[in-house]
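Thread: Newbie trying to understand structure tokens

Hi all, I'm a second-year student working on a class project, and my supervisor (Dr. K.) asked me to get a predicted structure for one chain before our next meeting. I've only ever worked with sequences, so writing a 3D structure as a token string is new to me. If someone could post the tokens and maybe explain what I'm looking at, I'd be very grateful. Here's the chain:
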Amino acid sequence: MKIGSPKEIYKGENRIAMTPESAKQLQKLGYECIIETGAGNNSNFSDKNFKDAGVKVVKKFRSVMERIRYNSKGQRSWKDRSI
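---
Reply by user tm_fold:
Sure, no problem. This is what the structure looks like when written as tokens:
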């Protein structure tokens, strides 16, 4: 299963749903982690920090969403909602 975290879009939002450390823990459980470029910048995590943790860093939000089937609420992603 893949877990992804897009870059925050709200001004002043500095939190991120996934850190390099949490990604390592998720990967130990068998999950693949994906994050949007720059998603951790406001939380002082660089793309390199995520890459070093084994996270796939993608350039665009759409690329993140195309790789995710369900969101954090267990709902199908936008791509799968017509199914």
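A couple of things are worth pointing out once you decode it. The helical segments are 20-28, 47-52, 61-66. The longest strand covers residues 32-36. Feel free to ask follow-ups in this thread.
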